[in-house]
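Subject: Predicted fold for 5-oxoprolinase subunit A, 254 residues

User T.R. writes:
Posting the sequence so we have a shared reference for the thread.
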Amino acid sequence: MDGRAVDLNSDVGESFGRWVLGDDAAVLAEVTSANVACGFHAGDPSTLRRTCALAVERDVVIGAQVGYRDLAGFGRRFLDVAPDELTDDVLYQLGALDALARATGGRVAYLKPHGALYNATVHHDEQAAAVVRAVGEHDPSLPVLGLPGSALLGHAEAAGLRTVAEAFADRGYQPDGTLVRRDRPGALLHDPAEVAARVVRLVVEGVVTAVDGTDVAVLADSVCVHGDSPGAVAMAQAVRAALDAAGIAVRAFA
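User M.O. replies:
I've generated the structure tokens; pasting them so everyone works from the same file.
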């Protein structure tokens, strides 16, 4: 970030059949990049096509949010997948979402892992390398979005891929810059005003307050507002309004 501009991303397309999760249309009115599910952790083909069409209509960049093959666990359980199998799973998801995106006049413009795969690729070298290998085999021009200092971004950079560092608006941080596990106190923030002020400080000063009260440096080009969190729409609206009021441009990185 240059201190006056940032991308806002959110997880969308996570409904399945008649089961609806979140208000994608309202969230897509506030963000500039959409992490669209690819059918492995959430989303069915019709949901994903509708979501891509909405993103194209709103001029929101489409990203592939790839995950473990774990619909029952919503992709939030670590799976010890063999690297070659994981590469193939990621390739499959990239290809499927890109086909649906292109059918709506868009295209997949970046990749971001979801849930447990995101967390695993912070430290798990083999899985991080497997994800990066899939990107390179599918389209080496795709940026990879991930946590600063993660194995994922390290492998992506080593492979010559563009890396994009990400921060989280509504997630708790450890003093070392990693995220608080979802089953721990302080993992999620719920007050839209508090989250909005936090994001403005993050963009301007490059720091967030960790769960122990200390400030931790977090430099990022994109900030995630979760689309499936309670009050996600109000959260996204508050963050966007606060950035606008602070004179910070909100624009896609891809």
